Amino acid sequence: MARLMFFLNKVLIKxxxxxxxxxxxxxxxxxxxxxxxxxxxxxxxxxxxxxxxxKCFASVRYRLFGQVEACRMPTADIKRRFLDxxxxxxxTQPAPQTSTTVNRKATVKEx
Length: 111
Prior knowledge:
The chain is 33% helix and 8% strand. By secondary structure, it is mostly helical. Strands 1-2-3 form a three-stranded mixed sheet.
């Protein structure tokens, strides 16, 4: 279940469409291997019901699973799964304010 939490604050951009909240999580699960892709069956539930459940779970997930003080350093096996962006440094600067528009001319879909 801890691996599932990785996806809970994500936006999925697939083609020209950006998915948010529960739709992003379920569309991501749809691309994974068994048994995770089975969770995509919940896409038949209306988006407003799924998002309500998503937000309720997000509000209590740290109480259920705890919170770590530092991020885990990726192993060589994990690193090979990601694109190499060179020497990109991580900073502790606050993230820029987000807006409702998505770059790359993506359409945001809630359902």
